[in-house]
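ok so for the tutorial part 2 we go from a plain amino acid sequence to predicted structure tokens. step 1 is just haveing the sequence, like this:
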Amino acid sequence: MKLAEYLVEKGISQAEASRQLDVTQVAIHQYIYRKSLPSGQMMINIYKWSNGRVNLIDWVREFDNAKSQ
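step 2 — the prediction. this is what the tokens look like for a chain of 69 residues:
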């Protein structure tokens, strides 16, 4: 599941996600809009925070989609 989909499903704003994950709201925005990928550690943090709903394969798909555009 994409991070954006997870936030919508749970009704969590980017600002709230950034507080819970201890990153800036700008970082969350950049992850969602493929301006940058989270670090490996942040991917793990997001995986744990989302109870496994946003996982590594989702980031790989995002990266592949961004490369092909």
